[in-house]
Specification:
- This protein is of the alpha+beta class.
- The protein has one domain (2-126): Aminopeptidase (3-Layer(aba) Sandwich), CATH 3.40.630.30.
- 24% of the residues lie in helices and 36% in strands.
- The chain has four helices and eight strands.
- The chain has an eight-stranded mixed beta sheet with strand order 1-2-3-4-5-6-8-7, sandwiched between helices.
- Strand 5 (88-95), helix 3 and strand 6 (124-129) form a beta-alpha-beta unit.
- Helix 1 crosses helix 2 (40-48).
- The relative contact order is 0.15.
- Bound molecules: coenzyme A.
- Coenzyme A binds at residues 29-30, 32-33, 92-95, 100-106, 127, 129, 133, 135-136, 138-139.
């Protein structure tokens, strides 16, 4: 569906469950994420909720990132088609820890944003990040996103109020 130099991105499938569980259940690496599966069944449920249709307003659609050279799933990218008239999207990336620090997130998030702007003609892409998630902040700044706001204790995650930083980029700002 989306191809980069080292990866292929395609919709998540039932058979991906074990590979996804492997890295998504890593609660230390994913401590800033809202969803951490405890069982394989949690992942099965997550996969079953993926919409049948891509680019459907007011849904999250999950893609997996496959390393071409090994055919392994190395992470995933979620796309939120936010608004009912479908001009804005939100994106987020999770990589298997073994694949951090190799540029895979930059490569695949750049291709995803390019696809949303150039093929789907989105107007604006946003991303929501915990201020302590430095790697994620570096990633979106590398892609040219602008910091738009820091929301104090605006999200209630795991019994705790946490801050949220919103970064965004407009279609005309994308190069
Ligand atoms: C957010 C996340 C995907 C970022 O991953 P990452 O590995 O830091 O980002 P990239 O894959 O783009 O790699 C960039 C790093 O690889 C280095 N690198 C090595 N080879 C590279 C190459 N060929 N191309 C580009 N960068 C390369 C870069 O210099 C950079 O290193 P630095 O951070 O020390 O400056 C990762 O930390 C993660 O999965 N976290 C857990 C989930 C999460 O919190 N997601 C955020 C939800 S909003």
């Amino acid at each position: 569906m989306i191809e980069t130099e080292r990866t292929l991105l395609r919709p998540i499938e039932k058979e991906d469950n074990e590979q996804i569980f492997d890295y998504r259940a890593d609660s230390e690496t994913n401590k800033y994420q809202g969803w951490i599966p405890k069982t394989l069944n949690d992942v099965n449920e997550f996969i079953s909720k993926n919409p049948d249709e891509f680019n459907k307003p007011e849904t999250w659609f999950q893609l997996v990132i496959i390393e071409k050279s090994t055919n392994k799933i190395i992470g995933d990218i979620g796309i939120h088609f936010i608004d009912s008239d479908n001009h804005q999207s939100e994106i987020g990336c999770t990589l298997n820890k073994e694949y951090h620090g190799k540029g895979f997130a930059t490569e695949t998030m750049r291709a995803t944003a390019g696809f949303l702007f150039n093929k789907l003609d989105k107007h604006r892409i946003v991303t929501s990040i915990d201020p302590q998630n430095i790697d994620s902040i570096k990633l979106v700044e590398r892609l040219g996103f602008r910091k738009e706001g820091h929301f104090k204790e605006s999200l209630f995650i795991d019994g705790e109020w946490v801050d949220d930083i919103v970064y965004a980029i407009l279609n005309r700002e994308w190069k």
